[in-house]
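[retry 2/3] IclR family transcriptional regulator: previous attempt timed out, resubmitting with same input.
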Amino acid sequence: MRDATEDTPAGAQTVRRAVAILRLVACGQERGVRLIDLVRMSGLNRPTVHRLLKTLIQEDAIEQDPETRRYLIGPEISLLGLARTRRFPLQTLADPYLSELADQVGDTVFLSIRHGHDSICIGRRTGRHPIQVLSIEVGVRRPLGVGVSGVALLACLTEEECAAVVAANAARLAVLGENPAEILARVARARTSGIAHAPIGLMQGTSAVAVPIPGPEGSALGAVTVTAMAERLAHDNFPRVVERMRIAAQAIARRHAEIAARR
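[retry 2/3] IclR family transcriptional regulator: success.
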């Protein structure tokens, strides 16, 4: 049975706003997101955000931690996602190459994709080194440009497209303490070098590097990232790791093209 408001501009706007709030809450993962940050990132006023959250909580799409008062993705969203367990074919075809790369470099390997204005981690494989840097979890959603994977993905866009994405994320970047101009500078360096490198990673004493997985006409299918203790991504070992990453990214791209050609 359809609601008469579904086809009205106001009804469509409410749906878009609710989905936008869901995306922002998803960024918080198990930590959750504060109401004040949802207001700042969404650009909506506090009563509107609170009203949307109340409705989403009633539908089990969002839940609120009784102690921290932060909002988290609810069980209904997780259950809905089970209906499409094979939604990310790139994850399946890339898995053996990620496992091999993790074994070769000895450190943690991540697979990320672009979704709208975000980068999302859809795969992670740990290496054999006794100390692994698990900087992010599978499912982490971040504005493009936050983290080396997002920089690598942005570097495959035109300068105009890249600037538009960063501008669209301005409010969220401000909440995260990120400077749009600095992100654009990182992207420019990555576009020149072919890699996105953070000598100082998200965690103290760590480092990270990402390379794009090439797609058709210069686009990126995704990005492969390696995180490690800083000394393991320094000096003579750094070029070796990057070369292994590039080989893996090219292999994933070739396999993807082979599968696409059969369809």
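[retry 2/3] IclR family transcriptional regulator: Residues 16 and 22 are 10 Å apart (CA to CA).
[retry 2/3] clearing retry counter.
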